[in-house]
Amino acid sequence: VSTQSTGNARGSSMGNQPSPSIARKALTHTKPKPTTTAPGYQHTGIMCDRCGACPISGIRWQLGTEDFCDACKRAGLPESTEQLFAHHPPVPVPKVEYTVPDAQLKPRQLLVVDSIGRDDWVAIFKDATLPCGTRVEVFQCGWQDISFTSYFENNASAIVCSLQMGSSRVMCRPDMLLLRNEVQGLPPHDARNLLLGFRHAQVPSVNSLESVYALLERPWAFAELIRLQRKLGPETFPVVPQYYYPNHSEMQFTPEYPVVVKVAHGQAGYGKMKVDSCKQFYDLSSVMAMNRQYCTCLLYTSDAADEEDSVDLGGRRIIKKKKKKEKMRKREKKKQVHD
Q1: Which own/partner contact pairs does 46-55 have at CB distance under 8 Å and 24+ positions apart?
Q2: What is the rounded CA–CA span in Å between residue 149 and residue 245?
Q3: Rounded to whole angstroms, how far apart are CA atoms 74 and 111?
Q4: What is the pLDDT of residues 215-244, one digit of tens each?
Q5: Are 243 and 254 in contact (CB under 8 A)?
Q6: CA-CA distance, 31 to 51, in Å (whole number)?
Q7: Burial bucket for residue 195 (CB in 10 Å: 0-12, 13-18, 19+)
Q8: Which residues contact 86 (CB under 8 A, 6 or more apart)?
């Protein structure tokens, strides 16, 4: 999901679907051949800090403030405590062969919540049709460009959206959603009221509204991981250890230091810090007393402090360390029994 939702709305005629069930199939009824990133893509103005190649072609590797080409990366990079990031070239949009459109069928409308910038969904779904021949009409805008009314009467749900398009507004009745922008971020960005409205109107979505709503809060998402672990078993589905504090007064202990403390809901990498000692943790609890937010706490590893709104990766190392310790204990017990 993008980390910002700014920009004007945009719409274009491209087709629609006869029903929500067919709408779901519409985005998957034709499977294009997989494509790879173009190796000749050039990162304009970026020079490799080792070989001097400028611009860097293909994958650009960033280590701290330094940039490296893919060849230098394969040759080996200097040791560093910084996290290594890969900047891949854009993936070309594959050509999809759609069904011949039927002009007698009413177009269906797809609303893509994605600020106009890197991805132009109007162009991506150009000339798109459903398997039945219904054309798809695509509208693209950010959360801040949407206003609507949802109502339920006569045993049916309905929604009427107004989308900002420059200095004018366009009306639409979306039959399907595709959410690409985060719902809630740093204040004042909060579109939960719109998300709830789409759910009230029973508008189908490619990425389900239930999952989007559940992932707004870290504890709720973690609870689902615990449920899956109990269903599949800890060996099949290991989960990163996590502590939850509903308020500052409960921040009395942690598993061990250092830890990463994250405040409230996911905010694209904001609201977190590394805590190395009990004193720092106590100082943080006094800061937490100034608001009514909760916080979560995870054991720190070199990659536990995730970038932007990605998932913590440090748990894998924690789990591996635990497994190694268990193996060492079993070996020691076997040796004691053998002796």
Answers
A1: 48/72
A2: 37
A3: 42
A4: 888 899 899 999 999 999 988 998 888 899
A5: yes
A6: 40
A7: buried
A8: 59, 60, 61, 62
